[in-house]
Design a protein that fits this description.
mainly alpha; elongated
Length: 55
């Protein structure tokens, strides 16, 4: 009885994975330009690091 339940569960997982792979290869998202606010600045350098220096 336990073996049959495991087999059904495995079958469901396989179906979900197959549907996921099919959607991954067939779905084409609409390309929308990413708009940034005009006051948004991209700063390159060590000051923009989010990590704190370890003392």
């Amino acid at each position: 009885m336990m073996k049959k339940k495991l087999l059904i569960e495995l079958f469901i997982y396989v179906i979900i994975v197959v549907i996921g792979i099919v959607l991954l290869f067939t779905y084409k998202p609409q390309r929308e330009p990413i708009t940034l606010p005009s006051d948004f600045k991209i700063i390159q350098g060590s000051e923009s690091n989010a990590s704190l220096p370890i003392k």
